[in-house]
Amino acid sequence: MNSKIHIFPDSHQLSSFLAGILRQKSEILNRKLTLALSGGSTPATIFKYLVQDFASQIDWPSIDFFFNDERCVPPDHPESNYKLANDHLFRFLDIPEENIFRIHGENSPVAEASRYSQVVWKHVPAVNGIPSFDICLLGVGEDGHTASIFPRNMDLFQSKELYQVTRHPQTDQTRITATGTIINNSDSVIFLITGKQKANIVSELLARRKESILYPAAMVQPIHGNLYWLLDAEAASLYTQDI
Ligand code: 6PG
After folding, report:
1. Which of 5, 64, 98, 146 is in Cβ range 3.0-4.6 Å of 217 for a Cys bridge?
2. 138: Cβ–Cβ under 8 A, 6 or more apart, which residues?
3. Across the beta sheet with 135-138, what order do the strands follow?
4. Which spans in 92-224 are helix H?
């Protein structure tokens, strides 16, 4: 696994770098790029900058959009990751409807985890016999969760399935999440992490101390792909290169 850490003064410059990665990768492919999105507040800011400042750099119809996780709520619910992406990204760009593969949070969770796994099997080219997202965008929670794999769900990194049902440990909200099987089979996994509230977990994860294996984000170790950490200065404020 090739891990690259990039620290930016702010989210705007981080977004510019991400736009460059999207542009470069979509230009070298002779097929549509498969991009898996995560939810939470970080992507909302980054999507805003992509739309307002970098949209023209990217051939959006050459991207198929998937999701790493979804809350089990309808697509118009304020907590829907699809709604977040649609409100801040999709609706501003000429993205064909058929390029957006949302997780149907309104469906029965177990059935939807299976349905969505089939969708990904069908639409995402495989590497080593498993679908491989060209780019998998992930955030990290202060407890080290990523996608909707929480510290008590570490077994999901050994799951045979591509997507499974989990519950948020505090809110008990039902969620559908990508498992480690598909996340770690991505060509590029990109952590997008901003804000001083993430400084502790970032320094823990990047120090790769033995206890950090308790964090799901520490188990993100692409088997054949690259791992990028795109951090703003606040999130990187406790990270020191030599730890
Ligand atoms: C979700 C995300 C989740 C998120 C982290 C960070 O559905 O909530 O997939 O893993 O990336 O919780 O969220 P913030 O960007 O809001 O800090």
Report:
1. 146
2. 38, 68, 146, 147, 183, 189, 190, 191, 192, 217, 220
3. 2-8, 226-232, 188-193, 135-138, 33-37, 63-67
4. 109-123, 180-183, 199-207
**29-88 pLDDT, tens digit each:** 999 999 999 999 999 999 999 999 999 999 999 999 999 999 999 999 999 999 999 999
Contacts of 58 (CB under 8 A, 6+ apart): 19, 22, 23, 26, 50
Residues with CB under 6 A from ligand 1: 38-42, 68-69, 81, 139-141, 145-148
Which residue owns the Cα nearest ligand 1 atom 8?
Answer: 40
**Alpha helices, DSSP H only, in 90-230?**
109-123, 180-183, 199-207
Going by CA atoms, what residue is nearest to atom 13 of ligand 1? 40
Place of tokens 């950090």: 212
The tens digit of pLDDT for each residue in 117-151 reads 999 999 999 999 999 999 999 999 999 999 999 99
Which amino acid makes up residue 12? H
Q: Tell me 181's DSSP state.
A: H
Plot region of 199 (φ>0 → left; ψ -120 to 50 → alpha; else → beta): alpha
Write down how long the chain is.
243
Q: Ligand 1, from 11, 15, 38, 200: best to mutate by most atoms within 8 Å of Cβ? A: 38
Q: Which helix (H) or strand (E) holds 70?
A: strand 69-71
27 has which bridge partners? none
Residue 30 Cα to ligand 1 midpoint, Å, equals: 31
State the Cα–Cα distance between residues 162 and 133, nearest whole angstrom: 12
